[in-house]
Amino acid sequence: MTLHPQARAYLAALGSDDGGPPLDLEAVRDIRAQSRAAALEQDRIGLDHVADVDADGVPCRLYRPRLGAPVALYVHGGGWVMHDVETHDVFCRYLAHVTGWALLSVDYRLAPEHPFPAGLDDVERAARWLRANGRGHRVDTDWVPAIGDSAGANLVAGLCVRDPALLDHQVLLYPVTDRRAELDPSLENAALGIDDMTWMWEAYAPGERADEPEASVLRAADLAEHPPAVVVTCEHDVLRDQGEAYAAALADAGVQVTAHRALGMIHSFWRQPAVFDASRALVVAVGGWLDTARSTAREA
User: From residue 250, how far is each of 34, 145, 169, 217, 220 by CA, in Å?
Assistant: First the structure.
């Protein structure tokens, strides 16, 4: 299938050459500042309650659409190097509003200043804090899933490798799963290039550290105790094949898995509902999948 017309228009707006991956920390920090400034100019949906919280030393932002809403951990993408709670604020508000799920968005430490496993340590700390303290913020913590996109999905999956019992469910949007996976050049585009992905891996988990199963989760020896999963991949994304390989590995280990390939879509479409019809549809679907899984678990 060819690129969806909305994906073609988006890539045309990005341009075919973005100058390649940043080469030094100063360039990284400039890109971060630009992304944050652009995010702060966007309109925001109002919710019942939005507050910055200290999750045992990890800065997070809690989004609550209503009192007593079920809550999910949210872990943003950005190649472990870019983005933060602020750049994902508009989308998290939208996600909470549409699905009715509260979110704890984790502002984990970024590479290359803080390489693996710093970001994963922060995500684990935030998840444990949510389990222990979420009720004090008037959300329902009886059943806690996690949602992550791209590198954030890798961190969610890595947390399940570290402690398979900590989360009740995992929603992985176009996850990074294996540093050594071959990336198909025919799937490369301006949304995510092979050089970018290679650079981000080296920034996050240099050398052999990338082979550790908490980083390259597809290399984990035993996935059998992992929580049920939803794995979404994009047809036109260099991460597609490794994401689908991870879904297959979970299923082969006996984990309940829903795998979905977004036809015609490109990396990063999930968090852009103003641009992609498929994003809006997927947000509704993720909310439905979580509602169903939570109800099933409560009835068991």
Answer: 38, 17, 13, 11, 10
pTM here is 0.97
Is 267 tagged catalytic? yes
Token pair belonging to 143: 């059943």
> Is 150 one of the annotated active-site residues of the chain?
yes
Q: What is the average per-residue pLDDT within 57-62? A: 98
Active-site residue, from 150, 216, 268, 279: 150
Looking at 205-261, list the stretches that DSSP marks H as alpha helix, in order from N- to C-terminal side.
Answer: 240-252
The pairing of beta strand 139-140 with beta strand 102-106: unpaired
CA 95: distance to chain centroid?
A: 13
pLDDT of residue 17: 56
Is 237 labeled as catalytic in the residue annotation? yes
Catalytic residue among 88, 267, 268, 279: 267
Neighbouring CB atoms inside 10 A of 233's CB total: 24
Rounded to an integer, what distance in angstroms lies between the CA atom of residue 190 and that of residue 44?
27
Position 110 confidence tier, pLDDT thresholds 50, 70, 90: very high
Q: Are 144 and 69 in contact (CB under 8 A)?
A: no
